[in-house]
Specification:
single chain, alpha+beta, Protein Transport Mog1p, Chain A, 7-stranded mixed β-sheet, 7 strands, membrane, RGI1_sf, cell membrane, RGI1
């Protein structure tokens, strides 16, 4: 008897504007969802959110969130450096693989810093199966926790209508 393959676990959250956003707490579930949406041809209109401890933080705490150091936050240069490396070398790379666009470059990058948080924004316009769409990824870390927020949004590009 084989074990049933369960889909990614997430919660649906409705925003003030009425949009339903899928919220994930596991990186693998998040990546699986993105992969499934791409395979289902719904890749150009996805909005989901991920709240997770980065793998390097869990590794340092021996996979126990209770043992994560209080210093693992946006005020720690080491944490920020490792998080940025994780984003650039793993998170973005894995997303590109899941949506089957390994050549995606995220040319439009930005970083915003304040006392409360650091935000990295990655944007690009791309095409898949003949459909043009925008992809926006926002990664945020805070001054009071090692939890990282990732917002993933894709929107179809509509051709400008000439009057």
């Amino acid at each position: 008897m084989t074990k049933k393959d369960k889909g990614p676990k997430f919660a649906n959250v409705t925003t003030k504007s009425g949009e339903v956003v899928k919220v994930f707490e596991d990186l693998n579930d998040f990546e699986t969802f993105i992969k499934n949406e791409t395979e289902d041809e719904e890749f150009d209109h996805v909005h989901c959110h991920l709240k997770y401890y980065p793998p390097f933080v869990l590794h340092e705490s021996h996979e126990d969130p209770e043992k994560i150091k209080d210093s693992a936050n946006s005020h720690s240069k080491k944490f920020v450096r490792h998080l940025h490396q994780h984003i650039e070398k793993h998170l973005l790379k894995d997303i590109k693989e899941r949506i089957k666009l390994p050549d995606l470059k995220f040319k439009d990058k930005a970083k915003e810093e304040s006392f409360e948080h650091i935000v990295w924004k990655y944007n690009d316009v791309t095409q898949y199966h003949g459909k043009d769409f925008e992809i926006h990824i926002t990664v945020e870390c805070h001054n009071d926790s090692a939890i990282v927020d990732v917002d993933y949004l894709t929107k179809p590009l509509t051709a400008a209508v000439e009057a």
